[in-house]
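Worked Example 4.2. Consider the chain below.
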Amino acid sequence: MPIRSSFSLGDVVKPVRSALLVFGVVAAALLSTVLPVAAAGAPHVTPRATTPAVAGSVYTPVAPHRLLDTRATGTKIAANSGIGISLNNDLQHTVPPDATAVVLNVTGTDSTGPTFLSVTPLGSNSLTAVSNLNLAANETRANLVTVAVGTNGFDTGEMLAAGPSALDVIVDVEGYYSPTGGVPFTSIAPLRVLDTRSGTGQGGQVAPVGPNATITLDLSSVVPADATAVVFNLTGTNPTAPTFVTAWPSGTVPTASNVNLVANATTPNLVTVGLSANRTVNLYNFAGSVDLIADLAGYYSPGSTQSYFPVTPIRVLDTRDANGNPRIPLGQGGTTALDLSGWLPPNASSAVYNLTGTDVTAGTFVTTWPAGGGLPLASNLNLVPGQTSANQAVVTLGGGGVVNLHNFSGQVDLVVDLAGYFAPAIPACTTGCVYGFGVDSYGRLGNATSTDTAQTPTRAFGVSNVTAVSGTDFNGYALRSDGTVWSWGMNGGAQLGNGKFGSGNVPGLNLGYFMSAVPVQVSGLSNVTAIADSHALRSDGTVWSWGGNYMWDLGDGNQDANAVATVPVQVTGLTGVVAIAGGIGSMYALKSDGTVWAWGQNVFGELGTGTSGNETVCSANEGISPVGPNCASAVPVQVAGLTGVTAIGIGRAAKSDGTVWRWGPRNFPNQDNLPVQMSGIANVKQFASTGAGTDLALLSDGTVRAWGNDFNGSWGNGVTCAPGTSCYTD
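Applying the procedure from the previous section yields the following structure tokens:
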């Protein structure tokens, strides 16, 4: 049975440190001139007081109702294709415009062959590919899906994508998350509250639920009086006929289903459902008889404290063979600990993930629960030999963000796709705040999520009193007034500098890279006065670096391009430094004596020493490992001929006499191996770069100049380069 594999970022992990953000963000940082910016980069800073806001969303349950049924249209979702579903077309208009995520019960049926279904935010720029539902030919199966709300610029909603076979899909809306109007969450260790086989719940009666019959699940003894909704894993077993089971709070049975069953099968599905006034839930069985089991995972109430934070779906565990690595399946009675701390903030209380079992050798069930506690009487996934099946889980986190996964019998491979997490709401910054916009892949906006593109500036949460910012395509960095440095975004190459890096607890497997969607402190740095990419200048004039050693730009003398510094290391031999700049694999430092020093890549003369490497030879190892002469320097070297420098950028310098100098790559194939004076510009106070080949400079008279590539109007002069024409000026 196919399970969609996660997207490989092997070509991205190391280079991402050097790619700069879009022009709009850099321009915002530079033109504000409110606070200094050490180098081109991520979100800009403003000390303005703003209306406080809170990061995180709260839940509102709705009466379950149907949003989509492709059987009614007569058109399946085609193999290897997808369709968008718009929440604007919900006739009951239950999901408001400010919703951040929706809870959907998604049912697949009538598949023409083995296939899977993925549910992702509409218009998402997801870097991963995950699965939510796995089906055999002609199978009917449901799965609860909690997914961020996306937009394509016109509609808000979700994208449904099929695997190698076509199928019909039914989507029922169960509720939504939004910043206001709902209630927060409390997660608990799994608790069995119903088992009609043994008499748990229902007054101790031992009897299956008959055809067209309803039983009432009374939760008044296990949830508080003000609880409005609950989350439980609902399992149907011993069905005597094909049937479905529906959960709802009160009133008429809705046109919706939660669990679909065939005779003699055992099938689970996570249920998020509102409570009636007396804290009960109705469970209806359509045909035949069936035993029902419910394991409570948590509840929503005004007295709860946890808000929901969606993330772009990311694969965090896959025990199958991946990229030539050996399988690590769970054997009979086997338990594995899954450490989620690389993807979740330290204050996360529980995780929401899709749990898939495959390569099953015997009838079994899988249980997931917080590490540190004993194996509970509960189950999340029921499997038979040869089956591939998925179920969503909401699981309390154990110490250090760890959860356990246990297999009862036989052997099984497990796949876990993270969808979001619960944590206390984060108060918004009001002074010295960081703003960013654009693609939010891997949490690079620092707003506690990693779900969609931000069209307008959004605040990074958990960091304030910021005096400078820097950044790359996948990371942001902030310098606070107390001299500490904070980072957020991707951490596959130790870009966060917090002691972690990589892609999970199974080395080598093809998983999503570590990340932080909220700012975390870079370890061991204090008294910092300037930042540039993953480098910091301390008040004692020393420079420190962290992350991957792409083109030797750690500058600590290490010539292993695969080396990783998970915490800052000192750049060799630099003292008396007063400013730093960098990117594209090369770094620069200005010393108090007016000289400029460089380290890292030298393929196009970036070091300014009069020599450069041969591009073909230097790039023989995917452009990462400098294998030829003059390709790079692992220690700082002096840029030739420059004295009296007062400001630096990436291959740029302004001197005290007002002249401006450049070296390194220009309009391809031109380059300058030694500094040359630029014409038509003088008296620069500050440099920046867009990363798209456009340079910016703030002059002493307060004006801004631009040169290089005119990429989509990057010069800011009201003119956009016409397609097919030369759009470059020195």
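The chain has three helices and 50 strands. The longest strand covers residues 306-318. Compare this with Example 4.1 before moving on.
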